[in-house]
């Protein structure tokens, strides 16, 4: 049952990305083009997602334990350090160059565009490079 809900969640996420137009890198890049042909739709998609998630988390946390699992697994770190800032900057640079973030690129694989596959291969390469140069902390 846990895997079925994971599949359904992925389908809802992918449908939302597709319906909102966020699989189109030109639309995403237009959001970053503040001095040109700015398209604010990404801000509305992100804002809507934050509102729904905020409400959803409040409802889910009332349960005390997750539906599938022993306990909620939440990040414990709150430090804003060089790794966080550097990683955020690299993510933003990649997003600004490609017009994709990994969350939108995965459903965009369904478009059959080779650029999407190349982008995701580069993301996986970045994950592997990070493992080589900066092993995970305990």
Automatic annotation (TrEMBL):
It comes from Falsirhodobacter algicola. Pfam families: DUF6691 (PF20398). The chain crosses the membrane at residues 40-61, 82-110, 116-133. Keywords: Membrane, Transmembrane, Transmembrane helix. It comes from the Bacteria. This is YeeE/YedE family protein.
